[in-house]
């Protein structure tokens, strides 16, 4: 990488926006985003912010990577607009890629960049895939690269060749210190992702995105199908109609404590 600091690679995925109603494709293999729009997950937004912070504090470079179709360049531009300085796009049909395929392709990028003098000492990913619920990529990638891995943390810092990662565990707050190079998966909540500025968006449009094809034929996902939980039942109480409902509305407000006694 350019500079003397640790090179950071942050991996993002184009996923349907889950803030609205979640709809599955007819075959149950994916979330249908045609009507909801697309974004990156909140975990990955925080991973991007941490990548930019680590690179800035350590004099390094933050590179963003995605595997997806041609539309996924939108998520790369979003990361570039908030501080990443380089982008790599492995152009492929995301529905044909399983977790092992994704980990293999990320590892191939890391190795090729290292051979070209752009080492990525730290690789950050979202803790899980927002659309398919896969929690496997970070661990598979660490095994592929022979690196230590820490999962599900919210803050990351680098100093003297060591990455410190912290987050809430089952028994309280936990802190891990592992040597670089390393793989870390991020949960939202530890940092506030920044919003892109107009100059940031303009700079992002000018960055030349590196395009790659997959290094091997994908094995594909092994899931049977996704399923949605049943809708949560809700109770509706009709207080009345017209002026006759006024006393019941007042009684309800008193019960809720919104009226002074």
| Name of the CATH homologous superfamily | HUPs
Order of H and E elements: EEEHEHEHEHEEEEEHEH
Tell me the Rg in angstroms. Answer: 22 Å
> Main β-sheet, in a few words?
7 strands, parallel
Number of strands: 12
Q: What is the residue-averaged pLDDT? A: 87
Structural notes for this entry:
- The mean pLDDT is 87.
- The chain has one domain (8-212): 3-Layer(aba) Sandwich (Rossmann fold).
- The protein has helices at residues 42-58, 73-81, 99-115, 137-145, 198-206, 246-256; strands at residues 8-12, 15-16, 38-39, 62-68, 86-91, 122-126, 149-153, 155-159, 162-169, 172-179, 182-186, 210-212.
- It is globular, with a radius of gyration of 22 Å.
- The protein starts with 7 loop residues before the first strand and ends in a 5-residue tail after the last helix.
- It is built from six helices and twelve strands.
- With 261 residues, the protein is of the alpha/beta class.
